[in-house]
Structure formats: C-alpha cells, structure tokens
Design brief:
single chain; alpha+beta; 3-stranded antiparallel sheet; two-stranded antiparallel ribbon; 4 helices; globular
Length: about 100
C-alpha cells in the first residue's frame, strides 16, 4: 500500500482515509463524518460520537495515522494552518 501512496496513484486525502479506516477500524459512516477538531494532537487521540450507537469513541492517534493526516493537511489543504512543532491545527475560511 505504501508504494501506491508514494507513487501518487491516489490523493493524499484518499490515502489518509484508507489508512484511518484500516488502522482504526472506524465504520465508513463515522469516517466520513470525522472532523479535524476530533483530533487531539497534543494527547494523540481521535474522539468522536459513533453514528450507530451514539457512544463516545476514543482511539489512539498512531504515528502512521497522524502522519497520513498531516501529509494531507500540509500538501492538499491550503486553507488549514498546521504546525507540527506546536501540535496545532487551525482551519481558516476560504473566500
């Protein structure tokens, strides 16, 4: 799978989606509803409310998942300011 990502055969967004889904086991309906605000970069946790049950789910933000999301944000999302040194992610509105 790594060669598919590094060869640019899929977008970094799609790669991040696949990596999150495979690594975390998140249901597709929950995956498409994830927001950047669901990620706690300081504590390496992804937290969201599960669509099917309404339960709060807290998953570890592994380096593989975090790096995939960071690559997507830095390279394909110009409307997001992302600082790896400060572990912060700020979304700015596009005009």
């Amino acid at each position: 799978m790594e060669s598919v990502i590094t060869d640019g055969k899929i977008t970094l967004r799609d790669a991040a989606i696949v990596i999150i889904g495979l690594s975390c086991g998140i249901r597709a309906c929950d995956l498409i509803n994830l927001k950047l605000s669901d990620i706690d970069w300081n504590n390496d946790i992804i937290t969201f409310r599960q669509s099917k049950t309404g339960n709060l789910v807290c998953l570890p933000l592994t380096p593989t998942v975090g790096n995939a999301i960071a690559r997507y944000i830095v390279n394909e999302r110009p409307d997001v300011e992302f600082s790896l040194s400060k572990n912060t992610c700020t979304i700015y509105p596009t005009f």
